[in-house]
Write a structure and sequence with these properties.
alpha+beta, elongated, 7-stranded antiparallel β-sheet, single chain
Length: about 220
């Protein structure tokens, strides 16, 4: 009797590759889906339509932007200083003839107002102008000046001496930044006794024109143009 060799039983811990390989092989054998030409057109047509619509909108918006006129940012308000001064004088608000100087015609008035300064106990008539060279010059007039108001009006600038113009003596103050203030005090103002501060960054020629116009208007009863 022939002895058969003993068979060693396979350990249950050893992995069996046969069952696991079957799904992988089946997955590898799946065919890659292919789109027909008509299916491809149906998928790509909406995308092309959307891109074309966006392109048309961009062109239209660009056309409106470039064809629209640019806004004008150079507008400068032009207050009627003479009318404001005449109204104040007619109502006897100021107690003196408010200044309405005849400045050059191409100057524009940025403001013309009667203001109460309760922190200083002063009422002030003032106007400011943009000059031909696009600089600024203005005046402030009161018949009741206070040191605190005057100091603020000249921006606390140091004294630079005195200047005589149009027959009047002014105290001059400069801040070192091309801005100057000329003060006609009530003692020096022999016409109507008011205190007038002329200030701005206008160059000498335009500043001198403002000083002359203010002095010429002192004591004049303003009339509405």
């Amino acid at each position: 009797m022939t002895d058969r060799p003993e068979q060693t039983p396979q350990s249950s811990d050893e992995p069996s590759t046969a069952p696991e390989q079957q799904p992988q092989q089946a997955q590898e054998e799946l065919p890659t889906p292919q789109l027909t030409e008509s299916q491809h057109r149906r998928l790509t047509t909406p995308m092309f339509g959307m891109l074309m619509t966006m392109g048309v909108l961009v062109l239209l918006m660009g056309g409106f932007y470039f064809l629209s006129p640019e806004p004008d940012y150079t507008y400068i308000p032009d207050e009627d200083v003479r009318s404001e001064a005449a109204a104040l004088h007619a109502a006897d608000v100021t107690g003196y003839a408010p200044l309405a100087p005849h400045v050059p015609e191409d100057w524009t008035a940025n403001y013309a107002r009667w203001e109460a300064r309760p922190e200083h106990g002063v009422d002030v008539w003032e106007a400011g102008y943009t000059t031909t060279a696009m600089s600024f010059v203005g005046f402030a007039q009161t018949d009741d000046p206070q040191p605190s108001w005057l100091s603020e009006e000249i921006d606390h600038s140091p004294s630079a001496g005195e200047q005589t113009a149009a027959g009047m003596t002014f105290e001059v103050y400069e801040d070192g930044d091309d801005r100057q203030h000329w003060v006609l005090t009530e003692e020096q103002n022999t016409i109507d006794g008011t205190t007038v501060v002329i200030g701005g960054d206008a160059q000498d020629e335009e500043f001198a024109a403002a000083v002359e116009a203010v002095v010429d208007a002192l004591g004049e009863e303003p009339e509405d143009a």
